Amino acid sequence: AMRPLLPLLLLLLGPLALAQPREPLPAGAQCLEHECFAVFWESRPFSGASEVCQRAGGHLMTVRSTVAEEAIALLVQNRPGRLWLGLSLSPTLSCTEPGLQLRGFRWVTGDRSTDYTNWAPSGKRCGQRCVTVSRELRWEERRCEEPADGFLCQYSYGGSCPRLAAPHGPTVTYRTPFGARGTEFLALPPLSLALVPELGLELRCEDGEGAGPRWAREAPGAWPCGLAGGGCAGTCAEERGAARCSCPEGSLLAADGRGCRSPCEGAQCQHHCVVAGDSFVCMCAVGYRLAADGISCEDIDDCAAEPCPCEQECVNTQGGFECRCHRGWRMEDGRCQRLPACWEAPCEHFCEELPHGYRCSCQPGYAVDPLNATRCVLFCNTTTCPPVCDATGCYCPEGFMLDEEISLCKDVDECDSNYCEFNCTNTPGSFQCRCPSGFHLLGIDCVPILGGGDGEEEFSGDSEPGSPTAVPSRAPPKAEGLHPAALVGIAAGALLSLLALLAAGFHLARKRCGSQGSGDYKYSGPQEKELGLQPVPAAQKP
Q1: 481-527, pLDDT tens digit by residue?
Q2: Is the peptide bond prior to 220 cis by the omega test (within 30 degrees of 0)?
Q3: Region (Disordered): which ranges (predicted)?
């Protein structure tokens, strides 16, 4: 029995169930280039008024300058009543602070910056956490829960569309996205509509790409040129009652029939696009050439050009090249210049330029090492010379030993150690051996010359011996045919010689304690010792 009544109930209750709260419409609005202000004469508490503004993309109005104050005066038009402003007391305060510019309030945007205030005279107020403005434009503290007579909303935009220019044309009615309507707007925010019933036009303010908002419509092509130039980005002309847009030279008409675009717009050129009439040509940067596809660019191998752009070495790079010089040369002012021979010379101390090279030299107290002409070794050409000292100790040249009592390097007299078999001459840091007639020098020994011979031969400790191994000074005499007394004399002489050698060796060992292996290395060179030091094998010493 209830089923037949169900459709009737749904029919009656449907409109009530689907009814939505009516969104209030502004009683007036004023728009500037980037902002719109609207007045709503509807009694609501502070929170309800704030929600209405937010649903349309705005907030309760902030009055930071006299410009905003003038906008309020135009909107209120001397109508009595109090309107909510976008000011609320800071949550950290329970009462107002009359000594502060905003009395402890802050804007609904979260900041306190302002160049303008217009408070009505009052003292400290507690519990009144919101602010209204009257037709006298005075600000007053009020309780947020109590409804005010209305409220002011503010909407901000990145740009706006201008009023449609139609000095002698039809009437244009505008409608903003927050519900305001009128014919006197000077600027319209994006998404606003312009209605021209006489021409059957409905235009929309749309965000342009880079150029800012502009009026447009869904249908392509121009509208009558008398209304905002037909919406053309270029020029508008009417032929046989139809409006048509055209673009300046070097531009093409866009797809909507009103805008203008460059022929290079959307071109795939890798480097540069150049307009050529109503078309375009791709071009490449210096060092590249256009590829076969007409849009890509490929590197030019500059080093393969004839003649080569570089003096010595050429290294190709992307879009260019780099010139380099050979070893021993350097780049100066774009040219390769030969480096001085001493620029990379490995001389330890000094380097001297020569016509075809260089020569290393040493500081005083040093001489060029004969085994390595780039290094320097200690050198002394007198019997005494000062040592060279550093943090590890003091050192003397080869063939010298340190006398710590007088802090001098003293020459070692090798002749005292009987290095030579016959004649020995001591020199600073070295010695010389000489042989009598009929002998020749082998190492430091004198060997009989087979078949005779005249003259004296000498050996200098300054140079290496002729043989890498020691050679006995002479062959020992055979035992046969010798008288027993002679044998005894020979044995006694050998024993005395051995004792003398031991004593000399002990004496030398004591003298060489301060020297660094001075007994094993001797100066190699002429008597004036201009070159360096040279090792003498220890096996040649008796």
Answers
A1: 334 444 445 555 556 666 656 655 544 444 443 333 333 333 333 33
A2: no
A3: 456-478, 515-542
